[in-house]
Fold:
Amino acid sequence: MGTSSVAIVTGAASGIGAQVCWALADRGLTVVVTDRDEAGGADLAAQLAAEGHGVEFAPLDVTDPRAHEALVDGVVAHHGRLDVAVNNAGVSGRVAPTGEYTVAEWREVLSIDLDGAFYGIRAQLPPMVEQGAGRIVTMASILGQVGFAGLPAYAAAKHGVVGLTKQVAQEYADAGIRANAVGPGFVDTPLLARPELPAEAVGLLEQLHPVGRLGTAEEVAGVVAWLCTDAPDFLTGAYLPVDGGYLSR
Ligand SMILES: NC(=O)c1ccc[n+]([C@@H]2O[C@H](COP(=O)([O-])OP(=O)(O)OC[C@H]3O[C@@H](n4cnc5c(N)ncnc54)[C@H](O)[C@@H]3O)[C@@H](O)[C@H]2O)c1
Structure:
């Protein structure tokens, strides 16, 4: 990817997405920061711009397929290209066992975490196909590979994200597009700052990772940025854990 490359990041106002924006901007990409949190997204874009980075903010709720299309149309109209897309927006949903999940709770998580990734990729593919190049990264989770009691919709959605990413890798390899999923372990971001999660639960979560701590958003962002820029052309369709050894147990 050259320094004139353009990237879209979803769910970019906070946590991992925000750090992905910094990492891509540090590599010289122009970053389109998107989020449904307009104040947070605009604030991040202002911080990046103040450091001299090429950046703009566009509000985007990933559950709206037309909004993805309008966003990509605008990016291509303005920049003439779309090189990188990081489909990162996600929510974890209420902590409760499967039998106690309401249909509305299930739908909310699936619509953001899985449908949102599909709507994004569907809109991002056409300009990448036209260019004959593109790098797509999806934000899965360790729960894209294993279950975790109390997060049924999240685990189902993230397994779906991994499957979707493999599909894209297969279908668009000939078109020069590389698609990979990143699977963070538990990462210290606002996603984990939940009222129903007692302080001692964080200590238990830390112990689930052989490295004995939670991950940082910067650690995940570094891997994402590498996949978007310097990763080998031969790397596609992969699920890449960044999980302190969680899945090695
Ligand atoms: N934090 C973790 O432990 C962890 C672990 C594995 C995977 N992940 C994944 O990483 C991604 C980022 O999570 P995070 O920890 O940075 O969380 P976060 O809550 O800090 O950030 C998520 C961002 O997504 C945005 N968002 C939520 N719904 C949206 C929607 N409908 N449209 C657009 N934006 C929306 C939020 O406004 C927020 O800015 C998510 O996909 C999450 O599932 C997180």
